[in-house]
Amino acid sequence: MSRLPELSTVPSLDLNRYLGTWYEIARLPIRFEDADCTDVSAHYALQDDGTVRVQNRCLTVDGELEEAIGQARPIDDTHGRLEVTFLPEGLRWIPFTKGDYWVIRIDADYTAALVGSPDRNYLWLLARLPQLDENIAQAYLAHAREQGFDLALLIHTPHTGRLTEQPLP
């Protein structure tokens, strides 16, 4: 079995510009997100302790809001590599319970981003709006392929507009 080279991340991520709401355009299947969820978004907010509050939201097939609250923190000086946990706050100290969240591509305007894990099992194409120009999306997905991601099972996330009308608490 060939070993993949280390996943390349952005040389520098301006965390303050990255904060705010991102919409999931596409992703690889993940066990903790229903494949039929629509209107998937993530909202990032800086906390007083320097960590980032993560609020993931989606609508189920039944139209119910699903939400997960987590915490991310940069693990290097570039801020392009973060670790994330969605455990309850009192359990976040437990070792080996954090996932890798590595920003592997972002545009200069911080309107499109590609995020993955170094084992290539997780991948998200994100945008500031619920839709992303197809040419831009294809360029980002080509970059993912070049980085060793298998996109055969890629899920394109539908956006109905129902969730964007609900305010974030």
TrEMBL record:
<dbReference type="Pfam" id="PF08212">
    <property type="entry name" value="Lipocalin_2"/>
</dbReference>
<feature type="domain" description="Lipocalin/cytosolic fatty-acid binding">
    <location>
        <begin position="13"/>
        <end position="158"/>
    </location>
</feature>
<comment type="subunit">
    <text>Homodimer.</text>
</comment>
<comment type="similarity">
    <text>Belongs to the calycin superfamily. Lipocalin family.</text>
</comment>
<protein>
    <recommendedName>
        <fullName>Outer membrane lipoprotein Blc</fullName>
    </recommendedName>
</protein>
<comment type="function">
    <text>Involved in the storage or transport of lipids necessary for membrane maintenance under stressful conditions. Displays a binding preference for lysophospholipids.</text>
</comment>
<keyword id="KW-0449">Lipoprotein</keyword>
<keyword id="KW-0472">Membrane</keyword>
<dbReference type="InterPro" id="IPR022272">
    <property type="entry name" value="Lipocalin_CS"/>
</dbReference>
<dbReference type="InterPro" id="IPR012674">
    <property type="entry name" value="Calycin"/>
</dbReference>
<dbReference type="InterPro" id="IPR002446">
    <property type="entry name" value="Lipocalin_bac"/>
</dbReference>
<dbReference type="GO" id="GO:0008289">
    <property type="term" value="F:lipid binding"/>
</dbReference>
<dbReference type="GO" id="GO:0006950">
    <property type="term" value="P:response to stress"/>
</dbReference>
<dbReference type="GO" id="GO:0009279">
    <property type="term" value="C:cell outer membrane"/>
</dbReference>
<dbReference type="InterPro" id="IPR047202">
    <property type="entry name" value="Lipocalin_Blc-like_dom"/>
</dbReference>
<dbReference type="InterPro" id="IPR022271">
    <property type="entry name" value="Lipocalin_ApoD"/>
</dbReference>
<keyword id="KW-0446">Lipid-binding</keyword>
<keyword id="KW-0998">Cell outer membrane</keyword>
<dbReference type="InterPro" id="IPR000566">
    <property type="entry name" value="Lipocln_cytosolic_FA-bd_dom"/>
</dbReference>
